[in-house]
Structures are given as structure tokens and as C-alpha cells.
């Protein structure tokens, strides 16, 4: 046998190596049996880890599939849903109230404007234009802004709104989350306020902060209409179906609204109703299930009250879309949508500085 690497030139094993150990094959040194004993245990542990990993992945996929399925049947567990407060509890006090006396000089028209705290520029433009309190003929027209509270508490925003309220005295606010889905609560808040604090009014209008309102022409048409009870008008949507596209702004699930068609309703961009209708909506609303689309919800209330929607004029006066501005055109409309604050100032000042003679013979002139 040739000398081993562990043998020296004398043929003796190195110190510390027993002859019996030296004579074992290389694969069976003193440590090798222990390693062979650990091998199956290590393999078993690795196998358990793999099985646990596969099980975890399968479990996660199953949860994901369940979540998707629940979303399709409108039982989204993790989706944010704004909490609907006990709005119909009449003890739900207002946080902010306007300083107005409806008894001394009862308003002919109260305009309720839905807004959010960050829309100060729009509120400022409205206060300088159609929202400014004025006497038209002998009819008093006043405007107020409807606000909720922030999703996340913001002390600076709250302080700013309080200061604005103290300065202008035209803000109505209650404690509900100010989101688009709660626009129904905001509108009902305004109706509730009119019912309690300004029942001497003749008409109420609900509109939005991105609107142009020709209060002069609206007042003229209301006087000419000569209807002060059971009256509701605006841009009428006689046959609208619920939008089932989940990514659409006006989406309504079958759970929220199972019907195939909405009752007739007026576009939420601007509708007008007599004060007795405000009282009737106030009284019936606690028995009508909440629905997030405010104009449709009001339409549902009117259906229960058996109040028919009516046109204000033989020609279209309410426009839920943007209308290209011209002095003669805007003299003969009540509402126009998607108007920026700077545009509102331009349009209004142009109307005030114009004369009736400018539009004689114009196609829009009656």
C-alpha cells in the first residue's frame, strides 16, 4: 500500500490518530456517522418548510379569491365605507348656524349651496355674485353654504371655517363626514335647517359651488309661475337607470338600489321647491332608506309624497352642463354647470353692466 498522506516517512501514523481510525475508509471518519444521522432530520425540516410555504401561498390566494367574490356581490370587507350618522335624530345639533332673521323680512328664495371646506375661492366668488343677499323687485334672496366635517380631524381647517362663519354668518354645518357619498345628508341638513329656522321662506333652492345661478331670471320665472305649494322644478330626468359600473362616480349596486329605474328626479346641480315641500321632505325622510345619490334620493321622497316634477318655463332654463357664455344667452337661463370662480366673476359683471337693448331681436330673447 502506498504511504498515506497522514503517514510520515517512518510509516507511523501522525500523533493523535488511532490506527483503527486511520484504517477506516475516508468516507467514514469519526465525524461522518453523526452527519449521516443528521441528514434525514434536516431533509425532513426542509420538506416541512416547503409544505408550510405552499400552504401559505394557497391560503393567501384563497383569501384573495374570496375578497374578489365578495366585492362582486357588494360585500366588500376592507373597502372604506363612510359611517352614516344618526342623521334623523333631531337632537343632532348644528355645529355652525348662520345669523339670519327670517321673520322680519321673510326670504322669497333661500339658496342652499353644497360646498367643502377647501372651496374658499368658490364661496368667495359666489358671495360677490349670485350668492350676495339682495332684493329683486320686492323679493328677498339669500344664500347659505352647507358643510360637514373632515374625514381626518384638522384643527387648522376647523378654525378657518369657524372664522369664516363669524365673518360672513352664512355657514350651516353638522357633524357628519364631508364626502360625496354623504351629499344626501348634507342636503337633508339644509332642508332641516330651513324647516326649523326659516319656514317663512317661499322657495328653497339646492345647488352646488361650481354653478352659475341667474337669481334675477329665476325670481322672475317663479313670480310668473305663481305656484307656491306642492311645487318642484329643475332639470328633469324622467327615466334614468342605475349605473352598475363600479368605477363610475354614480355607481349604485343592486344592494343599494335593486330597481331597474330611478323615479323621476331633478339634477342635483340645481332644483327649486316650495317651502311646504321642504317640510314634507323633512317629515318623510326618516322613513326613506338612505341612498348616496342625493338628487335621486329626493326623487324617491317626492315619489312617496306623490309630488310631480314640473317645468319652470316652456324653454329650458336649467342646464346641468357647461353653456358657452354670451350675455344674451345667460340672461335667459337659470343654471349653468362647471363654472370656475374667475369665470363666475366675469359672467356676473358682464350681465350687470349690460342693458336689455343689447339683446333685442336675439334668438334667446323672448
From TrEMBL:
Which keywords appear in this protein's UniProt record, sorted alphabetically?
A: Glycoprotein, Glycosyltransferase, Golgi apparatus, Lipid metabolism, Membrane, Signal-anchor, Transferase, Transmembrane, Transmembrane helix
Q: Name one GO cellular component term.
A: Golgi membrane
**Where does this protein act, in terms of pathway?**
Protein modification; protein glycosylation
Coiled coil where? none
- Keyword Glycosyltransferase part of the UniProt annotation: yes
Query: For this UniProt entry, which segments traverse the membrane?
Result: 51-73
Q: Which subcellular locations apply to this protein?
A: Golgi apparatus membrane
Spans annotated as Disordered: 1-26
The highest taxon in the source lineage is Eukaryota
- Say yes or no: keyword Lipid metabolism present: yes
Q: Which InterPro entries match?
A: Glyco_trans_31
Q: What GO molecular function annotations does the UniProt record carry, in alphabetical order?
A: N-acetyl-beta-D-glucosaminide beta-(1,3)-galactosyltransferase activity
Q: What is its EC number?
A: 2.4.1.-
**Protein known as:** Hexosyltransferase
Amino acid at each position: 500500500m502506498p504511504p498515506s498522506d497522514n503517514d510520515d516517512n517512518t510509516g507511523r501514523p501522525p500523533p493523535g490518530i488511532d490506527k483503527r481510525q486511520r484504517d477506516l475508509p475516508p468516507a467514514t471518519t469519526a465525524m461522518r456517522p453523526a452527519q449521516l444521522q443528521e441528514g434525514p432530520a434536516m431533509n425532513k425540516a426542509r420538506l416541512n418548510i416547503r409544505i408550510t410555504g405552499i400552504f401559505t401561498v394557497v391560503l393567501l390566494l384563497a383569501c384573495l379569491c374570496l375578497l374578489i367574490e365578495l366585492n362582486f356581490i357588494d360585500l366588500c370587507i376592507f373597502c372604506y365605507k363612510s359611517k352614516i350618522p344618526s342623521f334623523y335624530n333631531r337632537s343632532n345639533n348644528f355645529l355652525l348656524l348662520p345669523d339670519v332673521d327670517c321673520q322680519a323680512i321673510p326670504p322669497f328664495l333661500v339658496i342652499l349651496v353644497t360646498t367643502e371646506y377647501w372651496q374658499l375661492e368658490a364661496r368667495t366668488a359666489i358671495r360677490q355674485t349670485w350668492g350676495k343677499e339682495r332684493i329683486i323687485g320686492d323679493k328677498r334672496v339669500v344664500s347659505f353654504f352647507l358643510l360637514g366635517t373632515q374625514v381626518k380631524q384638522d384643527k387648522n381647517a376647523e378654525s378657518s371655517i369657524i372664522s369664516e362663519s363669524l365673518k360672513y354668518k352664512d355657514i350651516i354645518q353638522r357633524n357628519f363626514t364631508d364626502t360625496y357619498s354623504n351629499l344626501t345628508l348634507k342636503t337633508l341638513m339644509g332642508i332641516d335647517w330651513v324647516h326649523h329656522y326659516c319656514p317663512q321662506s317661499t322657495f328653497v333652492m339646492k345647488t352646488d359651488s361650481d354653478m352659475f345661478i341667474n337669481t334675477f331670471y329665476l325670481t322672475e320665472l317663479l313670480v310668473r309661475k305663481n305656484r307656491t305649494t306642492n311645487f318642484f322644478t329643475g332639470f328633469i330626468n324622467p327615466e334614468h337607470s342605475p349605473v352598475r359600473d363600479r368605477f363610475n362616480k354614480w355607481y349604485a349596486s343592486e344592494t343599494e338600489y335593486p330597481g331597474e329605474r330611478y323615479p323621476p328626479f331633478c339634477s342635483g346641480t340645481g332644483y327649486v321647491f316650495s317651502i311646504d315641500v321642504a317640510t314634507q321632505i323633512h317629515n318623510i325622510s326618516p322613513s326613506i332608506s338612505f341612498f348616496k345619490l342625493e338628487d335621486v334620493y329626493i326623487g324617491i321622497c317626492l315619489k312617496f309624497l306623490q309630488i310631480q316634477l314640473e317645468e319652470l318655463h316652456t324653454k329650458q332654463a336649467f342646464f346641468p352642463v357647461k353653456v358657452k357664455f354670451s350675455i344674451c344667452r345667460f340672461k335667459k337661463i337659470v343654471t349653468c354647470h362647471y363654472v370656475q370662480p374667475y369665470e363666475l366673476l366675469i359672467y356676473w359683471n358682464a350681465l350687470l353692466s349690460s342693458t336689455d337693448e343689447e339683446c333685442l331681436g336675439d334668438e334667446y330673447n323672448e
